[in-house]
Amino acid sequence: MRRVADAYRFVLVELSPDCFESAYDVIYEAFKHDIVPVVLAPPDVTLDVPPNSVVNSAELQQPGQLAAFLRVLMADASKYESFFAWKRTYHVANLEELMCPLCVALLEQPMRPGDRLDLKEWHMRRASSPADKPLYGVDGSFEEIENEYGETQD
């Protein structure tokens, strides 16, 4: 992507790229290198990207409309730069930055061997609290229930 960014202002992105696992891999690589992704998408596809960060061909369906729009962006630096304004309020997080602390936390030993969360006890304490509202009908789901024969089940 670095070579593309050095030579071009845009990168064309297919929804099913041959060299990447997903279109989002290409889009987020482009974000890292300050190049505007031009996503070739049908009208019924919604992209999960920051606002005004990609050119979506679904919004430019008339013949020649996409090419004309890209020419406008190339001629007007402020319009082109507007596709990077999202970086003031959003951040592209590296998956390793997010997952490494989680993995470390999961692998840490508890401070004391007996300090383990008893999920059933925690849930029962919360479910029996009068101040708590029902949680979408699952409150009490860990309680013992009696079947139709009067036998207790967990």
UniProtKB/TrEMBL annotation:
Signal peptide: none annotated. It is a single-pass type II membrane protein. GO terms for molecular function: fucosyltransferase activity. GO terms for cellular component: Golgi cisterna membrane; Golgi membrane. The keyword tRNA processing does not apply. Pathway: Protein modification; protein glycosylation. It comes from the Eukaryota. It is found in: Golgi apparatus membrane; Golgi apparatus, Golgi stack membrane. The keyword Glycosyltransferase applies. Its EC number is 2.4.1.-. Keywords: Glycosyltransferase, Golgi apparatus, Membrane, Transferase, Transmembrane. Residues 25-113 form the Fucosyltransferase C-terminal domain. Its main location: Golgi. Belongs to the glycosyltransferase 10 family. This is Fucosyltransferase. It comes from Haemaphysalis longicornis.
